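Hi support team,

I submitted a single chain yesterday and got back a structure, but I'm not sure I'm reading the token output correctly. Could someone confirm the output below corresponds to the sequence I sent? I've pasted both exactly as they appear in my results page.

Thanks,
R.
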Amino acid sequence: MEQDHPASLIPGAAYQMSACLSDLTTAGTARTGHTDPADYAGLAAAGTRNPSNVPGLQVDGYFPDGSTSNTEHGWNHDAQFVLRLPDRWNGGLVVTGAPGNRRQYSLDSTISDWVLAQGYAFAATDKGNTGAAFFADGRRPGDAIAEWNRRLTQLTVASKAATARYYGHRVRRTLVTGISNGGYLTRWQLENHPELYDGGVDWEGTLWRADANMFTYLPTALREYPRVAAGDPAAHDAMLAAGFAPGSDFLWPYHDQVYWDLTQRIYRAEFDPGFSPGDPAGSPFCASGSPHCDADYDYASRPAAVHRAVARIALTGRIGKPLISLQGTLDTLLPIRTDGDVYARMVRGAPFRYYRIAGGTHTDGLYDTYPDRLRPILPCYRAALAAMGAWLSGSATPPPGGTVPRGSDVVNSCSL
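Hi R., thanks for writing in. Yes, this is the structure output for that exact sequence:
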């Protein structure tokens, strides 16, 4: 039965709606309309096996916000969230923010299903803005991404209070986690609000630093890949020099068409809209040499204000709670040499483990296209979540970080 609650379980919410469900996992919610499969399409390998039959309460709603990019439920309201409370609760809570520019249900099949079956409550936010025009939210450069961090903090505080109220005693363990942009959020939360969490697991997190970020390698891909496709060996060498992994060449055509151009333009528009006057997001697939073309974007030479905008949301590596970080060696959107490896060198403070997943790439959905060359990271991510739980309870210490080789059962097993 579904009920509207203008101000009930979730403190601070402008609107919330709850439903008692026989199954909180995607096996049930996809049938009852309590998730949106389009949100998580393309993130998991087709052979992924998920648990099901986890009854409990689902709460959907939104916090006060003035932007309207999220159309879920017909609300046309951002800062939407989902909170799931299983009947059999283990005392823990897992919170996350959407990867990419997706919405609050985007991690249902990769994270929510599994943690609910382990007994955790689960909460996710849309980060306060969604879609390819997310950069339009806010008054000054960097505001949209700064809101991501604020919204995850807001959801964590509210979800901890709501979960304690629902079950009648405080949350005993809170984990923060996420994929891609959600991995960035995980790092930022443990650096800036460690008091809210017991630990975190970061999967393919985006690295933001004022002096090193996606703007230092994506323009190279936009400029050089057309020459690679034409057979220019010097252009190929330039791609490798920018950080793209040797042996990842088979993934370059897909990323050229789907990821590199869009990602460079819309994130550059977030921090440097003045680069392309009149159209902050620039010209799609423009040729090098064209006016205001992102293929020629030179972050190092851009005004100091651009670098200050990035610095507002940058990572420091000073984490305050234990963190496990995972990244695929064949990540071709966030190359491991420019992202995961760099952040691992930055980390200091709390205990930390970094696992390089051999044969993994940015999204597990590509495994089905290249099953002989790639391996899904999801099994390793689930192993990392279990390892974090054991680490926090004192029952087992995770093995030292390093490269995790491909196993014989690459879809459903991972040994850290």
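A quick pointer for reading it: The first strand starts at residue 2 and ends at 5. Let us know if anything else looks off.

Best,
Support desk
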